[in-house]
Amino acid sequence: MVRLITHNLLACHVKGCTSNNFPLKFQDVQIELQEADFNPDMITNLLPRLEWGALVDAARLVGDTSLPPEQPEMMDDDLLRKLHHVLLEIHVVEGVMICPNCSHSYPISNGIPNMLLAEHEIG
Amino acid sequence: MAPTDYLFVFAQAHEEFRVPELRSISELNGFEIGFSRYVDPGELAEAVKRPFMVLELEDDEHARALAKRCILIKSIYEFYAQGSTYVEVHEENRRVRSRWERYIPDTSFKFTVTGYNHGLSQRQQRNVIESFSYMDFLGKIDMKEPEITLGVFEEYEKDRRPDGQRHTDGEFRQAYFGRLVAEGTARSFIKMFDVKKRDYFGNTSMEAEISLLMANQAQAAPGKLMYDPFIGTGSMAYTTAYFGAYVYGSDIDGRQMRGKAKTPGIIRAAAQYGVANRIMDLCTFDVTHNPWRCGGLFDVIITDPPYGVRAGAKRLGRKKVREDRPLPSPRPNPDEAYIPPTKPYELSALITDLILFSRYLLKPCGLLVFFLPTVTETYEEVDVRTALCEGMELVANSVQGFGSWGRRLVTIRKTTMKCYPAPTFSSAGGEHVPAHKDFREKYFKGFKKESGE
Question: Min CA distance, B316 vs chain A (Å)?
Answer without folding.
Answer: 8
